[in-house]
Amino acid sequence: MLEHFNKAFESKARLGIMSVLIVNESLSFNALKDLLQLTDGNLATHLRALEEQGYVSVQKQFIGRKPNTTYAATDDGRTAFTQHLNTLEAFIRSGTFQETK
């Protein structure tokens, strides 16, 4: 039943990152940090892990003289995250984790 449970999304931070990026075309590092209330280091670590999996893309550019880094969910990331959520929903609906009395 849990064949599509994806360990890449098991942390609260990564669930949050992917949830936000699924509903937004892209977001800046600072916007993600503010929305998810994560530290720079914590957010950077989780984003790097998702990028290494191919689930998040990164675009670095300058706006005027200021660097701006934006993140977006990739097609693979959207597919993997949707499968993960569907697997969790099916698991919850199955009730196989409930105690028997």
TrEMBL record:
SUPFAM superfamilies: Winged helix' DNA-binding domain. Gene3D superfamilies: Winged helix-like DNA-binding domain superfamily/Winged helix DNA-binding domain (1.10.10.10). GO terms for biological process: regulation of DNA-templated transcription. Coiled coil: none annotated. Keywords: DNA-binding. InterPro entries: ArsR-like_HTH (IPR011991), WH-like_DNA-bd_sf (IPR036388), WH_DNA-bd_dom (IPR027395), WH_DNA-bd_sf (IPR036390). Signal peptide: none annotated. GO terms for molecular function: DNA binding. It comes from the Bacteria. PANTHER family: BSL7504 PROTEIN. This is DNA-binding HxlR family transcriptional regulator. The lineage of its organism: Bacteria, Pseudomonadati, Bacteroidota, Cytophagia, Cytophagales.
